[in-house]
Amino acid sequence: MGGAILSGLLESGATTDGIVVTNRTEAKAAAVRSDRVTSLAGETDPDANRTAVHGARLVLVAVKPAMVPDLLRELRDDFGRDALIVSVAAGVTIATMEELVPNAVFRSMPNTPSIVRRGVTGLAAGERASEQDAALVRALFETVGAVVEVPEDQMNALSTISGSGPAYVFFLIERLTEAALHLGFDESQARLMVEQTFLGASELLASSDVGPQELRRRVTSPKGTTERAIAEIAAADLTAVFDRAAASAIARAEEMAAGR
Ligand SMILES: NC(=O)c1ccc[n+]([C@@H]2O[C@H](COP(=O)([O-])OP(=O)(O)OC[C@H]3O[C@@H](n4cnc5c(N)ncnc54)[C@H](OP(=O)(O)O)[C@@H]3O)[C@@H](O)[C@H]2O)c1
After folding, report:
1. Which residues is 48 bridged to in the sheet?
2. What's the 67 CA to ligand 1 centre distance in angstroms?
3. Each residue of 151-189: pLDDT tens digit?
4. Which of 33, 162, 171, 213 has the largest CB neighbor count within 10 A?
């Protein structure tokens, strides 16, 4: 996820002087090193993280959630006073981070389409963050897509919609592809039809000044074939299915926060 945000930032045209990134392995560090990115590896330079945060105004923490507390403890004395600490780690709370560092902190939840700069990032600010700080962090995530600012207690809910959402969309794509196979199309035809339809419908929605309901109505002639198909899909009550899916995901996030 850190790599996705890095590539979005580089491609965005934003001024990108002074980017320093770290990984533990030199192989990963080498892959992102360029004339615009100083890239350090912990295995060849034990002070890599310290060097990276030295003088940084914004520190993006993109390690696995379980590693965040140790990393913050290790670096707390190296963060500048005005450094903003921004975590993308799922489930690591603002309170946890504020206990570990004296800085302003942010918790974020980007999603994987950030890799192609079509992401959605949920962003929650800690109490020490100013409006100006929030604007800076927001600008970072806007290089890889849209940003939704939410209170932290809505982060798990946001995560079940936009964080997990790409998985729901891929799941629907898989199911519709199976239906195409059942109709006798070969694998490549089925994939082409379904994937291009999802991409095309999404692009159409993005470029339209009307919403999905109206766009659906335009495909659905009265007494026509789409109307019959939609009646079948509506009978499956997908709203109730998604409500249950979201509730299950939120329950799991709460279990994970409790260490289960
Ligand atoms: N993937 C997603 O869709 C997604 C979405 C939202 C949020 N997130 C969050 O993003 C975080 C990372 O997830 P990921 O899937 O991107 O994991 P990942 O692919 O394992 O990336 C973690 C990166 O951190 C580096 N790293 C680990 N320990 C380090 C240390 N002490 N110092 C410097 N670099 C270190 C790793 O480098 P080495 O491999 O060289 O050790 C690796 O490149 C997680 O907290 C996750 O909750 C992920």
Report:
1. none
2. 9
3. 999 999 999 999 999 999 999 999 999 999 999 999 999
4. 162
